[in-house]
Amino acid sequence: MDAQRDQLFLGIKYVLQGNTYHFDAVKQEAAKRLLFHMQSYGKRVTRANYQAQTAIIDSMLADWNTESNLQEAVTLLKLTEWINRLQEVNREFNEHYIARVSDTAANPMVSFYSLRTDAKTSYRSFLAAIRAYQTLNTNEAYAAIYHKIYELARQYNQVVKMRRKASKRSVEEE
């Protein structure tokens, strides 16, 4: 949606630039007036952050819709369709942006570090529970489960250790 908004903004800008070469001097002046007003908001509007770009476009189009000399230029150059579409896309973009920000605020991102820490704690608690059942109960299944998990963890740690060594070697060779 941001790309569409940028295309509409640039499309209007290029239409205005083209009209500065119009054979009709009145249309040339109208295009220059709108282009000057557009450029007063900065040369890199499409590069501004989302909120700034939304505010700039809202402000610019509000001026074009309220100031009589700019309204006349818009009408003369037949830009109403372009402007209406840019206003619509800009409003929709802002609504989506606000919804996304609200959603992000309501559901903060969990870091991988905290997930890993929680997983380690849960894993260790799980192993401690199995170990306790093994000690308190005569059922050999707890001992078998504990030893299988222990062996899997040992093999996993061995793979991690080998990858670290291989990674160090490739860095040293470069």
Quaternary organisation of the protein chains: single chain
Task: Tell the overall outline.
Answer: elongated
The biggest beta sheet is recorded as: none
Secondary structure class reads mainly alpha
What share of the residues does DSSP label as strand, in percent?
under 5%
**Low-confidence region ranges:** none
Number of strands: 0
Order of helices and strands: HHHHHHH
Number of helical regions: 7
Distance between the termini: 43 Å
What secondary-structure arrangement, pairings included, does this model have?
Elements: H1 2-19, H2 25-39, H3 50-66, H4 68-76, H5 80-106, H6 112-136, H7 140-173
Helix pairs in contact: 1-2, 1-5, 2-4, 3-4, 3-5, 6-7
Question: Explain this structure to me?
Answer:
The chain has 174 residues and is mostly helical. It folds into two domains: 2-106; 112-173, no CATH class. Helix content is 83%, strand content 0%. It is built from seven helices and no strands. The protein has helices spanning 2-19, 25-39, 50-66, 68-76, 80-106, 112-136, 140-173. The longest helix is centred in the C-terminal third of the chain and has 34 residues, at 140-173. The chain is elongated and about 100 Å long. The mean pLDDT is 90.
